[in-house]
Design goal:
Keywords: Cell membrane, Kinase, Membrane, Phosphoprotein, Transferase, Transmembrane, Transmembrane helix, Two-component regulatory system
Catalytic activity: ATP + protein L-histidine = ADP + protein N-phospho-L-histidine
Enzyme class: transferase
GO molecular function: protein histidine kinase activity
Distance between the termini: 33 Å
Order of helices and strands: HHEEEEHEEEHHHEHHEEHEEHEE
Helix content: 40-55%
Number of helices: 10
Strand content: 15-25%
Main location: membrane
Length: 486
Amino acid sequence: MRLGLKLFLGFFLIVGIAAFFVMRIFVNEVKPGVRQAMESTLVDAANVLAEMAAADVKAGTIRNGTFVANLARAQRRDPKAMVWRFPKRTLDYQVTITDAKGIVIYDSTGKGIGRDNSRWNDVYRTLRGEYGARSSPEVPGDDTHSVMHVAAPIHDPADARRLIGVLSLAQPNRSIDPFIAASQRAIMKRGAWLIGLSALIGLLMTGWLMHGVNRLNRYAKAVSAGEPVPPPKPRRDEIGDLGQALETMRRKLEGKAYVEQYVQSLTHEMKSPLAAIRGAAELLQEPLPDADRVHFARSIQGQEQRLTETIDKLLALAEVEQHGWLQKREPIDLGVLLRSAADAVALRAQGAEVQLQVEVPDGLVIQGDGYLLRQAVNNLLENALAFSGAASSVQLSAARDGDGVVLRVADRGSGVPDYALERVFERFYSLARPATGLRSSGLGLSFVQEVARLHGGRTQLRNREGGGAIASLWLPWRGPAAPIRR
């Protein structure tokens, strides 16, 4: 099971269980809570009615006295009330009055007169000076509906200490059932909203956490695969700290491996020039004709230049390769960039008697690092000039190509042998120059390839019909959306 799903299910389970128990408690508490409120109201009403009935009970006229007449008129009233969206058109009170022995002397329903209620809890406890109340089935033997009875003592109006009867006030519980059901539905509805909202919050929180975790996961996989990737974006939490720790570790490990690799490469490339310098130096220590002495001195100077060029280009390539992503991005007018690159090699082209042509339409603008692109084009031009013969030409051009632009450097030189076409972009791989037979550092085209990678582009070198070669550098309009694989 995925970590994100585990987090979400765990969060939802905790919230769901908590919400379930809270709602269950609320739902279970609604019915007793409403009935307690009803009982409190019955207590008040019973005591008021007991005080009003006291005179008739003492006089023995309770069945046809003022109290009963007033009560009968009240029960015939239509309240026309709307309580919590529920209409109320009748009074639900039932009044029963017993004498001091618990014998019913008045019943508002007219059914219980003469019945002995002294053993019923409401009357029994009230006759003993306690609070009396009970709940009995509305229909004997049927527990579906019940009636709540609350009793109040009837005292002698002339002597408040003398008990002369008990008034029981009853109300069917079914009269409040709609309110209980409505409250329970409201709690369940709000509880469902609570669970849904909690699930949404859990989903968002899980998504936010997993977004950071997945970015770290992709970053770690890319690093382990050797892909150049930017460091994770800073975050002010443990995930951000972990990302920075991973980036620091990556830099240290890559830096160590990178230094070891370049030391080995540089050592390998320096052996041949150093051997030639050492041999020429040993020969110069012997008596030699002036012509040979000049020849060996020039050999030492040439090897020194080769070493310097190798070190300079190796440092430039190392700087580019160390960047897993483009550090600088700005609008670049390709017309200005290509003419600037052509001007930089104009004197060399003139000395080699090579005509340099620049063809670029107006309005070609891309996003990238102008310095790196200029250096890349310069390397392509220098490579083309080195393989071009006298009285030939080199064309530098740019054109739209799909969702990007392509820069081309075409020459009419000796071309590239078939066996070398697949290796020309390898580091330190170089072909002998036709004019001198010497080889370069073999780092120029590697530099161009790295610059293309940083911009999300690609490079190609192929032979040209009629002789010569064409080196192309394709670049997208806006650069890579994600780091490009090496």
